[in-house]
User: Fold this.
Amino acid sequence: MRDSVRKICVVITARPSYSRVKSALEAIQEHPELELQLVIAGSALLDRYGNAVDFIEKDGFNIAAKVFMVLEGENPTTMAKTTGIGVMELTNVFYNLEPDAVVTIADRFETIATSIAAAYQNIPLVHIQGGEVTGSIDEKVRHANTKLADIHFVASENARERVLKLGEDPDKVINTGCPSIDLVKTIADEKDLPFNPFIKYGGVGATFEWKEGYIVVMQHPVTTEYKDAKKHILETLYAVKKLNYPAFWFWPNVDAGSDGTSNGIRSFRELENPNNIHFFKNMEPLDFLRLLMNSKALVGNSSAGLRECSFLGTPVVNIGSRQNRRMRGENVIDVVSDRDQIYNSLKQAISGGYFPKSKIYGNGNAGVKIAQILSNIELSFSKTITY
Amino acid sequence: MRDSVRKICVVITARPSYSRVKSALEAIQEHPELELQLVIAGSALLDRYGNAVDFIEKDGFNIAAKVFMVLEGENPTTMAKTTGIGVMELTNVFYNLEPDAVVTIADRFETIATSIAAAYQNIPLVHIQGGEVTGSIDEKVRHANTKLADIHFVASENARERVLKLGEDPDKVINTGCPSIDLVKTIADEKDLPFNPFIKYGGVGATFEWKEGYIVVMQHPVTTEYKDAKKHILETLYAVKKLNYPAFWFWPNVDAGSDGTSNGIRSFRELENPNNIHFFKNMEPLDFLRLLMNSKALVGNSSAGLRECSFLGTPVVNIGSRQNRRMRGENVIDVVSDRDQIYNSLKQAISGGYFPKSKIYGNGNAGVKIAQILSNIELSFSKTITY
Amino acid sequence: MRDSVRKICVVITARPSYSRVKSALEAIQEHPELELQLVIAGSALLDRYGNAVDFIEKDGFNIAAKVFMVLEGENPTTMAKTTGIGVMELTNVFYNLEPDAVVTIADRFETIATSIAAAYQNIPLVHIQGGEVTGSIDEKVRHANTKLADIHFVASENARERVLKLGEDPDKVINTGCPSIDLVKTIADEKDLPFNPFIKYGGVGATFEWKEGYIVVMQHPVTTEYKDAKKHILETLYAVKKLNYPAFWFWPNVDAGSDGTSNGIRSFRELENPNNIHFFKNMEPLDFLRLLMNSKALVGNSSAGLRECSFLGTPVVNIGSRQNRRMRGENVIDVVSDRDQIYNSLKQAISGGYFPKSKIYGNGNAGVKIAQILSNIELSFSKTITY
Amino acid sequence: MRDSVRKICVVITARPSYSRVKSALEAIQEHPELELQLVIAGSALLDRYGNAVDFIEKDGFNIAAKVFMVLEGENPTTMAKTTGIGVMELTNVFYNLEPDAVVTIADRFETIATSIAAAYQNIPLVHIQGGEVTGSIDEKVRHANTKLADIHFVASENARERVLKLGEDPDKVINTGCPSIDLVKTIADEKDLPFNPFIKYGGVGATFEWKEGYIVVMQHPVTTEYKDAKKHILETLYAVKKLNYPAFWFWPNVDAGSDGTSNGIRSFRELENPNNIHFFKNMEPLDFLRLLMNSKALVGNSSAGLRECSFLGTPVVNIGSRQNRRMRGENVIDVVSDRDQIYNSLKQAISGGYFPKSKIYGNGNAGVKIAQILSNIELSFSKTITY
Assistant:
């Protein structure tokens, strides 16, 4: 019998991380034996990257601390320094909030700052979405997070096996499924898009008739290839223009290479003025899922293509190395960054129709599971490798 | 045929790390296809911790950059912030030095700053002494370093197997033996201690006749138990006082808990004024090995007890959890932090005599091997887990 | 007789600071007894703020160090933290470059980082453009820079008197005139604009016939009133739209409030789609002066209106408190942030014609004077107030 | 009529600053319209420098935030970086505490961090003890603090005139006297030393009979001459040894040069083993004043010699440039750092007896005045120079 609730501090450092764990945040907040301490940091605070903090507050969450930590420059050097600033700042935050456990999410570069600030202060560290495989710096960060963490909530059996192979205690590695699927499940029975994207989200670029069918584009720079960011985005731009099919396009994350990606988009627009592409900075998480569910295909390199779209059955054209070896359903076509390949695969995806729902990333109750386990699992900050 | 030498940047953040890799530094410096960029950081720059930088310069190394990064306070919070400052500063250093590879050593808390600053800037990262097992925060840091690194020079077969299990590419995991054994080998045939410790190193405390036999004490705080640092050191102090046998005692590293350890030593001295203990802040690496080689036993929790002393055959009383599960030879007696156990084991160690030399940590040519491999191994900064 | 040249380290942290001191940089570079160490930092490195570093390199300067230090957020909190990061980073830079003197420029918030990093390391500090008076945080920063500096190059007699009143040694306070006037002088005899702004600088917004007359707009947020940034810019936008006269408009500096200013401009454009305004991010310094020289008026709150335009004789409508009490010629009309006042004053300015050239900010040889004095003035880092 | 109390945030960064403002802290705490937010930072948190935080808590103050910011190294480079870290950390603290005004104290190097963190966030800044004159980096820092501050509580008429000459608004510059005198006043009528220093404060070195007369030594390194710190302290050590009169000696502040000072003391002790000197790390503020009041003389370069001792009438031998031009009473003999001069002046001071109490630094009610004024003065964060 414990005499007090456990304080669970979750650090959100970017827009997509929020939608990924929203259901877990809700379940923690509602659990009588847990108290949520929500920290919003990094690009989730910045207008340029869609100001996720606004959605979060609108969703009714109280924010325990805000941490400005993004150093401008969007190159590998500023990524590294941003992480150093993050360690300093988040250390302060945890020192003052005194959480019983800290949660770090997935594998963005700055998530290791959360891990270090917690682990070095002897606070039990929980890692969500370890054990997956991709390319890029994310691959190093994700597994380093695993080795700094004490408890692991993974999204698939495949991921659980990998975390166990990494030498973690089987009692502390739990396949809860991915909380992002929880969100998908809440809208999976809806019909048609219940809002007009142009009206609700503004944005810039062409306007067009979209009710008969559209695609969604979301392509981020690959940090280990960040000097090619502009080249990569141009291949996709030319392919989508040639397709001449309505397309909703999302701006990239803040990462090394963002400048290249943004420049590519801007100069393409000035030069080619495509009449089938409209650009958004951001969208509320549920609306984004609705947009995916009703689209003919997602193209780019977002992990949403492998994760959320597997449950939705939406066809996906996945470009380049960013999602290398991440587990995928049969809805995914992999291509290299080449305008012809992208164009041809998109043609095929649009005409092929939807795939059956897959549960490889869980069946939609990950958030509740996570909260339940956090309320009664043994919390410790000391471990040794199992072999 | 390469047209230029490879620039290898090695970051030394603490006194013991220097002696551990000195032979590798020499071999890199002498290799015609390598250029050494030596960075001295953290406590290796500080007078309070023995000012390792002075020994390093006296040994003839040029220093490419000095990085002050230790935030005072010696608690988990300042350890974490020191690491954040280290990331910021070392990022600058690598950005300016433009090395072809960066080397990070072992598992002290701040070594992850080197790893992040290199990996995030797409510089191939080499990790020395991965794959070992201990308790404490070191355990998390060491394996996280492994997951951030591209090339691994391990000190034993046992360590190599563990790094492979962690999913690293077998071609990039090489058992070179431990470079610290190289140093041991250079003095292993000497007889008697060639210097008078009191005269050469000053220090404080009792003076005594030592030529007939003495022990060496080196005990660091355990960061995950840092609040017990004072209690732990007092157990050892009482045991060594009771032993009433000449003892040379070394001050601890800068770590969470150093204050507790230092306070324990100081108050014990004022209270008990032991007449068989003399205290040193530091010693040149070779002299320290000579001191160990001629001692009846080493007591405490230094990794030198398991590593260097295995090759020397010196008996070791290893206290507490700090070296848990690190590979050890038959010269090591493990005890918990209890004055009676320590006292009894020391009695036994002193009377039992030396053990045969063991080569579990290598045969003394690790430095040359490391330099040779660095000159021709493929350098890349992108990897994915092997399973 | 000195045996070596003096190393003069100049830190440029923003686009406008570069044009302000360019002639001094050239003179230092060419002086046989001086060596220029040019450090580019802050927003001068950032694409979003016009990437001044590109112009600087194109002008043939070698860059000794680049310092990323801008923390995203553009609010007072990130301004303060940016300054803290700047102190840490610039301290490193000076420690490694070992300059004989460091030059800090004017009064932007981050210039105090240069001052602290130099003064605290006992490096003689030179301040350019002290002794002026304005509103905003600049006012505090400028005079604090004066009190940290050892040598003062001021731009007017008025400024010299003020620095002397602040207790500085008369031998160390020299009225060289403003080096920005040097640049103005080099183009002052040109006729007509020698380039087409639309073609050479791209930009966004309306295109129009400009050869018959245009105005230039440059309005920055006022940091002490940063929450009103959007309101302030909208007043100017409505006034300029109503004027219905060709206008070239420049994006603001990175400062607390930039987001408000940028948002104001963006939403105005979407809503009102003004057909007489074209927007630029940046322009080469000489071209910007040419643009001013040929314009009918400058409107906004840029210090160029008081400084460069006094020598050019261009009419200026100066809005709000940002340039409060800075010395001005008869070419300046001061108004509050009110669309009607701005509109009426602009009407008057356009119809009134040019003013005679004023030399209140110097006669165009400040750069050479600065270099000459730096080569032989006594350099010290210790001073006491004169009263 | 205000509806809520004003939150006054005071930042204490070092042991001596606490005693200097203790009476003001008490008065703020007791004032019904004020709320004290006490921030303890820098060396005031560190065991090595006497752990002022312990005295502060024992005195019954609640601490709103603790800020670790001292970077080890004790040289000009780490002083500068410590200040940068301080800006980052204190910005966070003020952002979270949302004070109505921030108080920065005097002129230690890191006090400018408090000033920047407040001023840049548009928080009204109060400076205590501006307008004085000394040598060293303190001189630059103090006047820079004045130029960043909005309200000035000065300790003498002389100081008030100087702040006015610096261009500050006369309504915002108030001579409250020095709060350190308040503390002196509370013990000024006591007789004899009410405690045995050896028993109450431990310390190291010789023990001796002190009731018949003793001197006090407190000498800090001079940061602009920090390389001479060891030489300077040795002159004083030899003079005091030759005097052969009981002496209580205090360890120096953390500053560039502390290592030199400490080393000087340590090596002198080992070499000369003086039998008339006892060393303390720290003393409770009131006990320190009692010790001064009962001593035959204070020697060194502490500002207490000029300030507190003027009210006490204790003779002072003030060495070197550190207190250059600070206002002093007739109780002070100034000497250069020379053992003969120090010795001779000490002889004279001991035999000369006490001086009459002087009120040049106030009459003992500064704390109450400060609190009263803070409760009703207009708080603003915008100012311009008066000339």
Summary: Chain C has a mean pLDDT of 93. Chain C has two domains: 6-180+362-376, 189-352. Chain C touches chain A through 19 residues (CB under 8 Å).
